Amino acid sequence: MNNFTLNTPTKILFGKGQIAELGREIPADARILITYGGGSIKKNGVLDQVRAALTGRTVFEFGGIEPNPTFETLMKAVEVVKAEQVDFLLAVGGGSVADGTKFIAAAARYDAAEDPWEILLTRGAKVKAAVKMGVVLTLPATGSESNNGAVISRQATGDKLPFFSAHTYPVFAVLDPVTTYSLPARQVANGVVDAFVHTVEQYLTYPAEGRIQDRFAEGILLTLIEEGPRALAEPENYDVRANVMWSATQALNGLIGAGVPQDWATHMIGHELTAMHGLDHAQTLAVVLPSVLAYKKEQKRAKLLQYADRVWGLRDGSEEQRIDGAIAATRAFFEQLGVGTRLSAYGLDGSTIPALIAKLEEHGGTALGEHQDVRLDDSRRILEAAR
C-alpha cells in the first residue's frame, strides 16, 4: 500500500428530517447565499424546508446553476457574494450545484489573477482562501458534498476542467434520502452510474495490497448493483434510497482511493464528450468505461479478474472469458438502468472524434490512466471502439 494522508473534514448529517438542523451548523450572524439549479427544489418542498430552518437569518438566493455548471453563470453569483458581503454559501441540489458553489467560494476570494478562470487552468493550485460552504444534497451521484473537487465548464471556449483545493471542502453536508424520492428516473440512473464509475476508477487499476480499500470498493459496487435497479422500481423505498445516497458519498470522499493507484482516464475523456456534445456526465462515463477496460485489459488483468470474481461472481472459464464477462456485465448493468453505452445511442457517429482528441490535447490529457500510458492515439482508439 502506498503512503497517504487522508483528511475528510466534512460533517455528515444523514437521515430523514436533518434539514431542520441547518440552523445549528451555520453561524448565527452569517450572511448566507443559497445556491441551486432549476425549480425542482421548489416543487418538492426542499427549498421551503431550508428557508424554514434559516428563519431569522440574513439569506440571499441564487438559482439557475446548470447541470454542467458554467463559468459564465457562476461569475454572476460571485458578484452577488461580493456585493452582499456573503460569508457562507449553502448549495442545495446535486453535484453540479455543489461543484458550482465550490467555484463561487474560491473565485470570490481569488486574487492571484484578474480572471478567476485561472483557478481551472491551474487546477486550483493558487487558491489560498474560499468562502465557507455547506451542502444540502438532493441528487446522490458525484460525492461532491464531501470532497474538495469540482468540474466547471466555460461556454465561450467549450472547455470543461476540474480543480481541487483544501479550501473548498464543505463544512457540512445534509443527506436526507427523502429528498431524492421525486427525482426523474434519468437522474437516478445517472447517479448510480456516476457513483459506480467513481468507484471503478479507484479500484480497477493494479494490485497495491490495499485490501481494505478493495473490500470497501467492492462493497460499494455490490450495493449499487443491488440497489440501483430497485431505486428505479421503488422510488419511495427509504432504505434503498439511503443506501444509494451513502454509496455515492463513500465512492468519492477519499476513503477508497487512499494509498492505491487511480485511473480517471474515463472521466477525462468523458468530460470532452460533455463539453462538445452536451451529454450527461454519467452518459459519457457509461460510453467510455467499457471501452477503456477492454482496451487496457492486459494492464488491468489482475484487478479485472478480481472484479469478475468478487463483484460479478464469474469463476468459471478461462481468464480471458472471465475478464470479457465482467466487462460485458458492466455494460449490461448500465443498459439495465437505461443509460446507453455506445456513442450511437446518443446520435453520435464518431465523426467528431478528431476534434475531441484535439480538445483533450489542449487540456493536457496526453498521458492518462494509472500508468500515465493512455496517449492521445490510445484515447482515439478508445472512442472509436465506443461508437
What report would you give on this structure?
- There is one protein chain.
- The chain starts with 10 loop residues before the first strand and ends with a helix.
- The protein has 387 residues and is of the alpha/beta class.
- The strands form two sheets. Strands 1-8-5-4-2-3 form a six-stranded parallel sheet, with helices on both faces.
- The protein is globular.
- The longest helix is centred in the middle third of the chain and has 23 residues, at 211-233.
- The chain is built from 15 helices and eight strands.
- It folds into two domains: 11-179, Rossmann fold, CATH 3.40.50; 184-385, Dehydroquinate synthase-like, alpha domain, CATH 1.20.1090.10.
What labels describe this entry?
387 residues, alpha/beta, Rossmann fold, Dehydroquinate synthase-like, alpha domain, six-stranded parallel β-sheet, 8 strands
